[in-house]
Structures are given as C-alpha cells and as structure tokens.
Amino acid sequence: MEECKNSNELVVTSNKSRKENSLLVTHRSSLILGIDTSCDDTSASVVVDGERILSNVVSSQSDIHKKYGGIVPELASRRHVEMIWLVVDEALNNAGITLDDIDAIAVCYGPGLIGSLLVGCGFAKAVGYAKKIPIVAVNHLEGHMFSVFLENKLSFPFLSLIVSGGHTSLYIVNGFRQYVELGRTRDDAAGEAYDKVAKLLGLGYPGGPVIDKLAREGNPKAFDFPRAYVPESFDFSFSGLKTAVRNAVSSQSPVASSQSYTLLCDIAASFQAAVVDVLVRKVEWAIVRKGIKKIALSGGVSANSELRRRVKEMAEEREVELFLPSIPFCTDNAAMIAAAGYCHYKAGNIAGIDLNPKAYLPL
User: Which CATH architecture has domain 153-324?
Assistant: First the structure.
C-alpha cells in the first residue's frame, strides 16, 4: 500500500500505478465508484470487482473538529459540500479513468450524521442521473464488514467485529445480506468511549490514537477499571467504564509535573486494557459457542495496536484464522463502500432517484 498527502490535504491510498490501472481496467468486469460521507471524512474510491483497489482518497476533517473536542455535525456537512467533487475527481484521476468508465456508483446512505449523509447521497444521485449510471445504496456497517475482502480471500461464514466511534457490534456473516447480529453496545461505542476519555484527560480529538500511544508507556494494572462483560450476552457496555475513569481522575490529588505524565499514561493504559479485555473476551466466547473458525475485525478501533496484538494472541491460542484490514482501511473509507456496493450491483439492487439517507439504519 502506498500512502501520501497532496496539496489538497487528501490522503491517497492505492495499490496500483496509473499504468497498471489502465491494464487492469481493460480486462475488468465491473468498475465501482464508492462514496462515503457518513461522518467527518469525505472519501471516494474506485474498485474493480469489489476487491481490487484502483484508488482510495480520504479528506480528513480532524483539524476542523479537534478544537471542539468532537465532531460538530453542521461543520462536517459544510466541509463535505466543499470537498466532495474534489475528492471524487482525485479518485477518478488516480484510477486513470473518467465517469464514462464507471458501471455503478455505491454510496453510503446510513447510519451516520444526517447532514453529512445528505451530501454524499445527493451528489451520487445527481451524477448518476446526469451520466445514466446506476446507484446502489450501502449500509455503513455492511461496508466495514466487507472491507476485509479488499485485501484478503475470505470464505463464509465468519465472525465480524465492527468497532468504531459510532458502533460496537458482533455479527455472524453467513453470506451477502445474510448477517446475524450476536451483540451490540447498549450505550457508548468503544471508539466513543476513547474520544470521551481523551477529552476528559485533555488529550484532544480524535482520542483513539493518542490514548493508544500513551498506553504503551503506562501500567495497565495501575487502576482497576470495571469490565462490563454482560453475562449470558454478546452485548457490550462502556458507559460505566467512562464514568469510572472520570471518578478516578477527580479523586487524584495534585501531583508534580514530573509525575503527571506517568499518571496520564497509567490511566490511558488501564482504560485501554479494560476496553480490549471485553472486546477480545466476547469474540472468544463467540468462537467457542458458535464454532466459527474465522474472525474479521473492522472499524476505526481495529487500528488500535493493543487490540490487534491481543486478538492475534487469542486467535493463535484458539487456532482460528484472523483477518485484519491494514490501517488505512480500518477507518471510514469509500473502498469498503465500493466493495459492498459491487455485491449489490451484481444482485440487481439498484436504488431509485428517491433514495434518502437515514441517520439510524439497522443492518
């Protein structure tokens, strides 16, 4: 994978040169343009047959939202309006194609921030109508689920753990559109807990990467934070953990500056250990109870170094296959939307011009 930044502040991920792309397109069967504006990243991607990436472009809004300690929906949607065509144009240029080469446009229509989703859906419908290109609607969770196919050959069934800022869910994936939900968060998502704890500790936004970094220097046993295993259930709960961290911080006496960094690292490590323990234990329970020997992780939190390390150890102990997306494909991206969209396109699931986004959209 090649990752770089250009003058438009777009993160470009592609595994082919433009010349290689031209040769690949010559022998293609289906070329999908993916669009994702579900939250605060504007992304477009061109993918062949749901698995071969010609281009993947992401415009991040972190610099806009970090001053507020979280995403401001109105600012996010306005930025999408500014960036959507630039991002799509960059994706097409990097793939070495034009809109005339596209077989279908796959757009994320939920769940997510409704203002942000409206931008992506409106753009996709306008381009599709003008250029007579079919539109397929993709659930954001389904996109995360199918991100694993971008870099791996994986057969059904498999367990899919989706861990992000808005979702923490565990599924059995028996096939395309054959998803069995085993459990979901009852309150905060894991990524949301990371962001809120980071804000509580004055670490800024987004919280996941900075807590992960600090945790490497801390003692994960310094604080005995709770693990909400929710007995006899595959559901998750992180609100109590967040409260426990707040109480621990408020109970600390003033410390010397030389000790404050150590304390910060210890809190981060102890918090992260509590989150990872629950995630890994729930997946392990599912392996044992359901007898499925393949696991796929996705979502922004799947980029967390401690989670990746611990789930690898567990997979080796249980002798199961583990599929982890590379870091650029853990967070929101349009390549995963295109991957899932390809399956919808081949199945004939074409959306109408009346397609509307949905903030809440069960899988």
Answer: 2-Layer Sandwich (3.30)
